[in-house]
């Protein structure tokens, strides 16, 4: 959304005034493009690095403000959440050793962040979605204290008019509701900028759209959210849904989300994107920064186009058009927003090099991508890449396919990218260094997402969910510091979860969530069979809205059978007659010691876990016995 806001307007007069400024900005940009004012015949590149801050338990650490105060540098800025940071590198002319210089700058900036956060007992993680992040981390208390973010949350909720609903299905399935924009804070990216001239914009932007799928497939790094295995790059689905203002329910109406791949190829001009974004998406709020772009032009000044930039910052295309001013000259950039953060600076620059090389090499090979590929295929390929990573298959040039990603990249696209970088004058050693990383990653199939999923699989029968995701983060921090690219990483081990205490601090970290439940009107014979089939001793009773209404225990079932069944030949008894009504329950955030005390005080063998009025989990005495056994084994080994 551009510069931080000191205030924002939601009232109709302010919105109308802002729209007038916005339309004048569009008119001014049209005149600048017609008059040849947009800088051309030079390539510059730049990056924005987003990252997570974690504490010694590998959980989100909301210390961004403290870290920024320690560093005291304009290079580092806040993000939506207090456990995120971003730094921006100065643009570099594309050529020579620009890629290795950029990598050194990233490494240096990361060193500065680490030195700052180490003072608070924290660490830095480069990943698309932090595996240890939980819904409890996403309250407004962790939103950065900046009017920009509060205004964004308020304006999006105004348009939506109801809670956000998230549905993402991969190996597992996620279905949750949330009432703020804070789920966006689960995402961090490595945003790459590529400056283009206005006369070549359409051709290069379309090429960037076609190249998005193969690039994303090779660099996926976000397979987990709240412990669930979803898409290889879950950020794509999560980001779209986290700021989706649509509430249309009719199948007849087609409404575009604010986060999208786009709707069609660009035909002639960058103006098509700005016009479509204004036409399709309502102004969220009005910036109170006055401007008159046409007056600036008439006076010989380069207009800032602050209203246009502000509105463009509230529409999130995966390849976004940006307007900026460098050394007094206006320019246009393509901003790549879909590449995830991490796993290492070397991996990130390899991703950037592959993208830059594809833009150049594919342009040389295909000239006009719109003549040999349909837009629908480009968009479909992008979604397949997000879901499946290197396991995806694409429909490629002239409808060829389905073509495996690995075959396409190794046999066609890497050679094009090498030629494209060489033609751009990139140092031969850097071309080899970075594209060899892409090649090895693709040949081995070891993306960041694959490393995380394979690591989880190797720990499947050991530890709790909390321990396993903590081990992923701890291992990622250690391996990133080694400098090795992700395809050379060893799998994470449970021992890398660190101190066992934080992983058992709260009920949500080890509670059972895959529950067998019954309805109070069902037959108790079903409960008997559930207990026998699934080897369980406690069966929660819930209504059709998943609200907890009772609990059946093995002990209560035996008591009933002894007292009543001897006097009945073939009874038909509902669960309601045997269940314990209003059972003692806890919340996901209940401390473990408190849960133990409750069980001891009330002499119960299980505790249903309730969030709001809905059943979300179950903790039993058997869970604590397993935990105690693991901890005793660890203590004896130590």
Number of strands: 23
Q: Compute the average pLDDT.
A: 91
CATH class of the largest domain: Alpha Beta
How many discrete structural domains? 3
Gross geometry: globular
What is the CA-atom radius of gyration, in angstroms? Answer: 27 Å
- What class do helices, strands and sheet pairing give? alpha+beta
Strand content: 15-25%
Report helical residue fraction.
40-55%
**Number of helices, counting only DSSP H or I runs of 4 residues or more:** 19
- Name given to the CATH architecture of the largest domain: 2-Layer Sandwich
Main β-sheet description? 8 strands, antiparallel
Low-confidence stretches: 1-7
Written description of the protein model:
With 638 residues, the chain is an alpha+beta fold. The protein has 3 domains: 8-443, Creatine Kinase, Chain A, domain 2 (2-Layer Sandwich); 444-495; 508-637, CBS-domain (Roll), CATH 3.10.580.10. The protein is built from 19 helices and 23 strands. The strands form 8 sheets. Strands 2, 3, 4, 5, 6, 9, 15 and 16 form an 8-stranded antiparallel sheet that branches. Strands 19-20-21 form a 3-stranded antiparallel sheet. β7 (164-169) and β8 form a beta hairpin.
